[in-house]
Amino acid sequence: MKILAIDTSGLTATVAVCEDDRLVATFSIQYKTTHSQILMPMLEKIKELTNLDLKSIDAIALAAGPGSFTGLRIGTATAKGLCLALNVPLIAVPTMDAMAYNLYGVERLICPMMDARRSQVYTGVYTFVPEKSEDTSLYKYVMKTVLDQKCASIDEIAEYLNEQGKPVTILGDGVPVYLDALEKKLKVPFSVASVSQDRQNAAALCAVAAQYMREGKITEADSFAPEYLRPSQAERTAKENQKDTVAAASGNGNSSENSQGALEKTFGMKIPKVKERVFIRLMKAEDIDVAAAQEKENLGKEAWTLDQLLTASTRDDTIYLVAEKSGKVIGLCGVQNIQGDGEITNVSVAKDMRGEGVGYKMMRQLLERGRGIGIENYTMEVRSQNAAARRLYEKLGFKSDGKRPGFYDNPKDDAEIYWLRKQQ
Amino acid sequence: MIIDKKTEDDGVIMMSIKSGEKETAPDKEKEASGKDHVTILAIESSCDETAAAVVRDGREVLSNIISSQIALHTVYGGVVPEIASRKHVEKVNYCVREALSQANLKLEDIDAIAVTYGPGLVGALLVGVSEAKALSFATGIPLVGVHHIEGHISANYIENKDLKPPFVCLVVSGGHSHLVVVKDYGEYEIIGQTRDDAAGEAFDKVARAIGLGYPGGPKIDKAAKEGNPDAISFPAAKIANAEYDFSFSGLKSAVLNYINIQRMQGDDFNKNDLAASFQKAVVDVLTEHAIRAVKEYGYDKLAIAGGVASNTALRQSLEKACKDNNISFYSPSPVLCTDNAAMIGAAGYYEYMKGVRADLTLNAVPNLPLGDRERRFHGRQSL
Asked: Minimal CB count within 10 Å: which of A172, A326, B214, B253?
């Protein structure tokens, strides 16, 4: 079993090749050159000096984050390219796990920390537990995770370590940056790893990856994304600006659930499922049948036909969302942008799912996403008698702007014209 | 031109662009002799589009896959580099795989891998460059670094099989406004450029100011169709003593001033008229400069390229001016004006044929200059 390992998460670019229990090559450089310029030449050198036949590689191991955003992407894109070309799986090892493995056999607490700026570090806490084999005095160490890798402030991690009350060894590029602060804050005995162990090292990554491989913990490279542990600045700012945006059920969660079955099939292993909840996502072509049937049930003659839905939902100036629970479409809504005014064309929720806030959740997302395609004001018509719907729209900030008398038939009803204007 | 479009759960739109032309029956003799064709796999990730394509002999597009993130960025009123880079990493393998599969080819069938290495957003470029280098390293297929704008210019070769240098090309996009003389394949001379904002940038800013939203180009184009281009008179976007240069920042300020004055006076203005008048000011100066350049340099061909080249008013204006002046006018289909990898494959082909090769130190160069640059990397020729 041959593994090629890449770690470009920090300042050090490091690559290694191991074959079963033999480390064939390891190459680390911490110098001024960028990962983008140094990584591939390092691999090429290893290939040349060890007569490495790339076709003999069984998997690519990658430090899967956290780390420098750009560094992670250089490593990830490189690993993905290699996986695609060599047709091998990816082994994604959390960066902190691989770093902690540098200190194999250390029974103290091990705390890797990478500088994440703004007085924060990417960190985690680990330790090695000895396990004696039955008939000899040979001990093997197993790495245990005490604290999962996370982004934490120096105060937070120091407090955590103090609570543990155990000696700790720290390592990583966060150490020189925060050593003064740690000396003041840490009450537990602590030491700093030696220069031979204190940075990312692909040899340790290889060792962890080999274990992953034996346990079948492999990843499909195409859909893999590194673990940044932090949203982008723009997303942070946007979130702060609009504190109560619909953060819940976005399409992302759903896509991972969809790929679940495929992943399990590919790799023949169980992957824990996320608990059932309502997802709001963009309507897809395969939803149209169900959505049209639901419209028909809810609205009878006024319902849009399948064709109408299909035409409307594939336009550039519309957004159609569906709510999904346990893989079933339970709600639908849509908006069309007319020069900055968004006409809400459809809103419906399956009969047995009403009163659970599905409509509200769906509409909040629709209004939010609509702003993204340039909609400033929203408008819609609703039956005057439909009190539940009117309550929902009023809760969303819509205000009645007038009536169209006798607009609806069966039963005869007025249409209430609702507007949600930008300044309201 | 057929576009297969699919919106994914995360808001990214996957597109596959097909020429719609009937496939020519494979030439049995050529196929048998094997190496008559040069097939390029191209990768592009300079801004908010992850794209991969397979192009044969620089002109024939076998597949053209674009994964557009535009919907993710509209919320922020422009491209957010970190978000773009993150999406590129997620999509890049899908695009490459899909491009190969639609071309019905395997990596082994590819003669060279072409990749955009600049100009663009550095984090975004790095994804394509890293992927391309890894593919090249793992397979031994030669690597060619391509200039993004040279790609845009080369988009003209795809649908205009008869277009050959020399010609003049007007490159207008969100980041660029250049008048370029294409002397030969891969030989470019910049004769005019913007002194400040790019044309597309001015479109975006004006669109935002009048509340049309992002992306500004198509929004203004659409609104302008309903407006009167002569309603408001804006200054020309020219520079004194620099006959081929542009300046759009002054024009943009004039538009913003106009809006402010109207608002202060409590007057309402017609968005459509304003859009039309602004657009006319941009189009007039682009047209005038381009036509004059073709005539003064003694050529008879004008091509346009870049995102703004899909603006209908600009196309019409140039088409008419070219007709009046006996100049042949070339333009890519709108979908080939936006960022795509087929154009990188076209440009990459001509670079490859000249012997240009990149080695594995190839890096992303966010401000890579056009034309006059160190382009020959004497690395591996092939393995």
From this structure: A326
Extents of the domains making up chain B: 2-160+337-382, 167-331
Closest chain A residue to B130, measured at CA? A78
| A112 falls within a domain | yes
Give residue B374's pLDDT band: very low, low, confident or very high (50, 70, 90). Answer: low
| Tokens 């937070």 belong to residue | A156
Indicate the number of domains in chain A: 3
A325 with A258, same domain: the answer is: no
User: Are B302 and B328 spatial neighbours (Cβ–Cβ below 8 Å)?
Assistant: yes
Query: Residue B376 — pLDDT band, cuts 50, 70, 90?
Result: very low
Same domain, A114 and A157: yes
pLDDT tier at A244 (50, 70, 90 boundaries)? very low
What pLDDT sits at residue B21?
66
d(CA B297, CA B295): 6
In a domain, A229, yes or no: yes
In B227-311, which residue ranges form alpha helices assigned H by DSSP?
Answer: 249-264, 271-296
pLDDT tens, residue by residue, A50-59: 999 999 999 9
| pTM score, whole prediction | 0.74
Q: What interface predicted TM-score (ipTM) does this complex get?
A: 0.89
The CATH fold of domain B2-160+337-382: Nucleotidyltransferase; domain 5 (3.30.420)
The CATH number of residue A302's host domain is 3.40.630.30
Interval B108-127: pLDDT, tens: 999 999 999 999 999 999 99
B 289-308 residues inside an 8 A Cβ radius of A: none
Question: Across the interface, do B93 and A34 touch by the CB < 8 Å criterion?
Answer: no
Architecture of domain B167-331: 2-Layer Sandwich (3.30)
Chain B, 121 to 160: residues with Cβ < 8 Å from chain A are 122-123, 126-135, 137-139
Residues A209, A317 within the same domain: no
**A255 lies in the same domain as A325:** no
Whether A273 is in a domain gets the answer no
Instruction: Note down the domain range covering A9.
Output: 2-95+200-267
Q: Are residues A336 and A410 in the same domain?
A: yes
CATH number of the domain to which A110 belongs: 3.30.420.40
**Segment among A303-312, B105-114, B136-145 with least mean pLDDT:** A303-312
Buried b (16+ CB within 10 A) or exposed e, B326-341: ebbbbbbeebbbbbbb
Using a CB-CB distance cutoff of 8 angstroms, which residues of chain A are in contact with residue B93?
Answer: 80-81, 83-84, 221-222
CB B213 to CB A78 under 8 A?
no
Same-domain status, A91 and A234: yes
| B window 161-190, beta carbon within 8 A of A | none
In the beta sheet, which residues pair with residue B5? B15
CB B337 within 8 A of CB B176: no
Do B9 and A44 count as a contact with CB atoms less than 8 A apart?
Answer: no
Q: Looking at the structure, do residues A87 and A110 belong to the same domain, yes or no? A: no
Contacts of A376 in chain B (CB under 8 A): 211
A73 to B127: CB separation less than 8 angstroms, yes or no? yes
A47, A222, A232 ranked by CB distance to B97: nearest: A222
Asked if A285 and A407 sit in the same domain, the reply is yes
Q: What's the farthest any 2 CA atoms get from each other in chain B?
A: 76
Q: Do the domain assignments include residue A272?
A: no
| pLDDT value of residue B292 | 95
Q: Is-same-fold flag (B2-160+337-382; B167-331)?
A: yes
The distance of B110 to chain A (nearest Cα, Å) reads 12
A226 interface with B at CB cutoff 8 Å: yes
> Which residues, including other chains, have CB under 8 Å from residue A331's CB and lie 6 or more apart?
A294, A322, A323, A348, A349, A350, A353, A358, A359, A362
Interface of B with A in 204-243 (CB under 8 A): 211-214, 219, 223
Query: What count of other Cβ atoms lies within 10 Å of the Cβ of residue A223?
Result: 17
Q: Is the dihedral of CA A70, A74, A80, A83 positive or negative?
A: negative
